[in-house]
Specification:
A two-stranded antiparallel sheet has the order 1-2. By secondary structure, it is mainly alpha-helical.
Length: 201
Amino acid sequence: MKMTTHEEDLQKEAVVLKTITFVGVTVTSIAVLTCIIAVPGLYHYLQHIHSTLQHEALFCKQKTDGLWKQYEYAQRTSGVKGRIKRESRPYGFSDPIIDSRELPLEDDPPSPSPHLGCSCKSGMAGAAGPPGIDGEDGSDGSPGDDGLPGQDADPSSYQGEEFCFDCPIGPPGKWGLAGSKGVNGIRGQPGEEGAQVSICR
């Protein structure tokens, strides 16, 4: 059966639509797989950056608080009176204005803030503290390697004492027990022929 021109156009259009549908499904599948793989990784990376920034900000805040406490302690010990005002800081880190006259008088120096690790620069090292208590003795180490053999001594350098032994001969011992009977000897040679004797009647 011969196909008409209209049917041929419809068939070509169907082939084109199938191709477009296949390409669209393929691209959509790739996009979905990419989202499934990339979105969790991106979320994890952003969470890591957020945690790092919080860590850095907390460390800088504690360092700043430590500096203010040292400044307040130095002001109290030196007898200087006045108000200590802090400048405004970003949201989440602002503290109220502190009046040094309202702070409790303490002679103890401010405790250092724990070291959390940051890219901020550290100050100069302080003076060395007193020596600590001696620790327990460690376990014995393994034996060392054998050393190289030494040089042979000169025989003439050894001068030992010369001893002379002159011992007398000792007394003879007791008789021993009789031994067992020996084996019979070899049969001897025949003897000489004897003389003939005649007897007369």
